[in-house]
Amino acid sequence: MIALTDGVRLNVSVTGPDDAPVTVVLSHGWCQDHRTWREQIAALGEMGRKAPRVIAYDTRGHGRSGATRRGSATLAQLGDDMAEVIRRYAPSGPVVLAGHSMGGMTIMEYAHRHPEEFSARVAGLLLVSTTAEGHTHTRYGLPPQLASLLRVGETLGAGLLARSGAWCPHRAVLPALRPALRWLLFGDECAEEAMLLTMRGLGRAPLRSIGGFRESIGTQQRLDTLAGLGDMPAAVLVGSKDRLTPPACAESIARALPCADVTVVPGAGHMLPLERPEEVSAALLRIVRRVARQAKRARRPISSPDRSRRAA
C-alpha cells in the first residue's frame, strides 16, 4: 500500500528484480483493477534475467485501493497519482507506461500535468483501447442519433451515481447485466474467466467511482499533449469491434504520435488485455526490449580517441 499526499491509500503490486534496467507501470481501466493486466504481468515475468520490474496498482476508488472523494474523481487527479507512484516505486531509470482505457487517459494526463518529469523518465508507451478525445468517437456500436440519446442518459445517471457514496449495491444485479456487459465490452470471443474478472472489477467499484469519473473521461482532450511527446518506442492497440473506444480513437492518437505502431485486432472488443492477451503481451514485450537495449547503450562507456590509440 502507498498513502498518497491527500491520504488515499493505493493497493500496489510490485514484481520483478529490484535492480532491473527497466520499470513497467501498468494502469487499468474504469471500474476495473490491476488484475486486468495479469496475463501481461506473467509474460513479463517469463523474460528471465531480462525481466523488468513491474508496478501494477489499483486506481483510487477501484479494486482494493481506498475510496475517492467526489471532487477527486477526475483524470487530473489520476495523473497526479501516477506521478506519486512513479516517484515512490521507480525513482530512477527508464519507465515504460502501459494503460488500458482510462489507464491510457491517465498516462496522457500525467504527461500533460508533469511534462518535464514525463520527458525525463518515460522511455516507452503502450496505449490499449483508449482515447485522447473523450467521448468524441464513442457510439456504443449504435446509430448516431440513438448513441446521442444514450449518452445523455448515461451522463445524467453518472451524476446521480457520483453523489451516491462509496458503496456497491450494484453487485446484486450484475448477473442480470452480464449479457449487456458481454456485448458492450467484448468482441467475437469472450473466455469465461475474462468475463468473470471483468464483472468482479465492476462489482468492487463504488457508485461514486462509477459515476464520478464519467465527466472528465468524456471531456478530456489530449491530442496536443501526445503531439509534444517526441519519438519513443510506442504502440497503440484497439479492437475492430470496440464499442467504447473504436478504431477512430486509435487513428487520431497515431496521427498525434507518429512514432507509434498501430494495431487493429480483428474481431476484438474493448477488454483487449483479457480478451486478446497474447497480442497485448507481445506488443508490451517488444517495447520493453527496445527500451532495455537503449538503456544498455546509454550505460556503455565511450572510448576516447587517446584511449583507442593507446590500446592500438
Automatic annotation (TrEMBL):
GO terms for molecular function: hydrolase activity. It comes from Actinoplanes sandaracinus. This is Alpha/beta hydrolase. Keywords: Hydrolase. Residues 24-283 form the AB hydrolase-1 domain. SUPFAM superfamilies: alpha/beta-Hydrolases (SSF53474). InterPro entries: AB_hydrolase_1, AB_hydrolase_fold, AB_hydrolase_sf, Epox_hydrolase-like.
